Amino acid sequence: MPYRFLEDIATADVAFEATAESRTGLFAESAAALLGTMVADQSTVVRKRELAVELEENAFDLLLFAFLQELVFLKDARRLLLHADEVQIVETDGVFRLRATVRGEEIDRERHPLLVDVKAVTLHRFRAGCEGDTWRAVVVLDV
Amino acid sequence: MSVPAQLRRISPTIWELPVSYRKGMLVPARIVATEELVARMDQGVFEQVANVACLPGIVKYAYCMPDGHWGYGFPIGGVAAMDPATGVISPGGIGFDINCGMRLVLTNLTEEEVRPQLHHLVDRLFARIPTGVGCTGFVRCSRDEFREVLEKGSRWCLEHGYAWPEDLELTEEGGCYGGANAEQCSEKAIERGFDQIGTLGSGNHYCEIQVARKEHIYDEETARAFGIAIPNQVVIMFHCGSRGFGHQVATDYLQTFLRAMTTKYNITVNDRELACAPFRSPEGQAYFSAMKCAVNMGFANRQVILHRLREVFSHQFNRSPEDLGMRMVYDVAHNTAKLETHLVDGKRRELLVHRKGSTRAFGPGMAGIPGCYRETGQPVIIGGSMETGSYLLAGEASAASTFFSTAHGSGRTMSRHQAKKMVRGQKLLQEMEHRGIYVRTASYGGVAEEAGFAYKDIDAVSAATEDAGLSRRVVKLIPIGNIKG
Known about the structure:
heterodimer; A: alpha+beta; Archease, Possible Chaperone, Chain: A, domain 1; five-stranded antiparallel β-sheet; three-stranded antiparallel β-sheet; 2 helices; 8 strands; globular; B: alpha+beta; tRNA-splicing ligase RtcB; eight-stranded mixed β-sheet; seven-stranded mixed β-sheet
């Protein structure tokens, strides 16, 4: 399973573990877990709008933190639910740069089976990196 | 659940982890709870309250209240007072939902009068108060006007016809936390929140119609002083915060502090969520000012919701809100940091008190509470689950040891996913309606997560705060109608 919700961390909030074969895949799966926290059926979120997201951080895990946080921001500021379709990450001299194409649509209460609003991505037990052959992230979301 | 072997019982309601529990602890950590509540606390509470005890400048003890549970950074229910001169300020000690809080509103209606109208009332509240993921409010204001809201809080609402003058007196800090400077808030924060005034949000946020039954009144005299004086009186309680604006302020400064903490101030923490900066540093002061903006947004948000509530009741009963006696009891925050003066070892000291999921509970005669509550102590509102009820309590002089702080809710005991596995939202709502509680929700999945069994026993939590001398029970309030995000 590319992501699963963790029962035993942060009782009041939502924790998930995402895994992937590549670091860009890890970003896409983590974005799917974020979307899956807010919408019960992600297939209801139609790719009507497209946005480019560009970010840079000096640590790989903080780049994932910033990316998820950007998706949370777009949920409130543009009312958009988004899939992370294409992700590129380039590392130069210890600086990680992300270019992603995210697609989705405005929140529609009639069509989207909404669950719970995500307020923020927390850094509690936050980790993202390569463990053996697998890229893995653990994220606690404040809901 | 496993309690750490080093946890010592100091009194029937005080439990202590000594500084030897974890390297770096500057003060002991204290958990205020009964033996039964402590035994059921998750391991995360002990780890997190010990981490808080390591923060620079912490005074006396790191505290966790009886409703404590595993959060991020601080436990939910965490209290820490810092020396402003030597200590830090930490967004993780306040929470992302800055000024998440409770407001309680009276009516002069009885349950018998409201029951026949209950479905209409709840349906109309649900239609008029935006709830759920990404909801926006009816107040149209520009980004510049929103900056005014951030600096004025409820005063802005009064100027724009959304408040009665007395509402401000009955709100903590008069509904406006002085020293808020919108220039310390990012454009992103403004962009995220400027159209969310008057919205409930989701998760455990709610607006609930409740009844004060005679058999649930613990302190009749104080209940009367708080405005609860007729049999089966109907009141309205709601719980929400500063919405996306506050969440973004906390996120922005978490990132700022993370960078400055190690490179500039040489501070290390056990959990990055406890990222902090010296309170007197430029970063610390900038966050404090931005946090005050979020506090003011929280007050304004709840004030506009109250305006809508009054409209809905007035429409339903064809009487004015004044005629319906829709006065506020109080509005109190449970996610803030405030500069307060407390007695420490016999000396008066100014302290920066972080409360994350903890209610300020000033006792009788203390400065900072409305004159009408000078003799009773400040009203304290502890929200329970939508099935089991909530409590109105009063601040006590004996709460000095916790810097006049008490619990804020019943506290979760089960994860959201576990709760959802145990009950389906629609079935839960049908069962609740059979029991006389009518609920409207923006999310059946979300409402299942809020089932009563996912929370601690609110009676036990409230009783524990009374046993520990933090707050005394005045009345338990029973839900009959509820809207949830």
